[in-house]
Amino acid sequence: xxxxxxxxxxxxxxxxxxxxxxxxxxxxxxxxxxxxxxxxxxxxxxxxxxxxxxxxxxxxxxxxxxxxxxxxxxxxxxxxxxxxxxxxxxxxxxxxxxxxxxxxxxxxxxxxxxxxxxxxxxxxx
Length: 125
Prior knowledge:
mainly beta, Jelly Rolls, 2 helices, 8 strands, about 10% helix, globular
């Protein structure tokens, strides 16, 4: 990852939990202290489930080979696309297809689950 992005975002791509392990999402969220943290929770077939606890905005990016699914646990997530902004509140979800430029923003502390390809670059291609 680009060192300037490493300073801004805390993204851990190492899978934290193996099959049959209990994952306490609420506990993980409560332990987050940075404005932008992203953890790779588990692998599901050829995908990874990530937990993001975020506040602020990510940069414009796209994923050439992978779709990206977002599910809001708490807070509010705004997904900017080239021609619109999608607002997601708790229990809302949205799929950004591969090759689509997007930028995520969280005006308040927000917890999200993301599902994306196992080999995706979280900061974009």
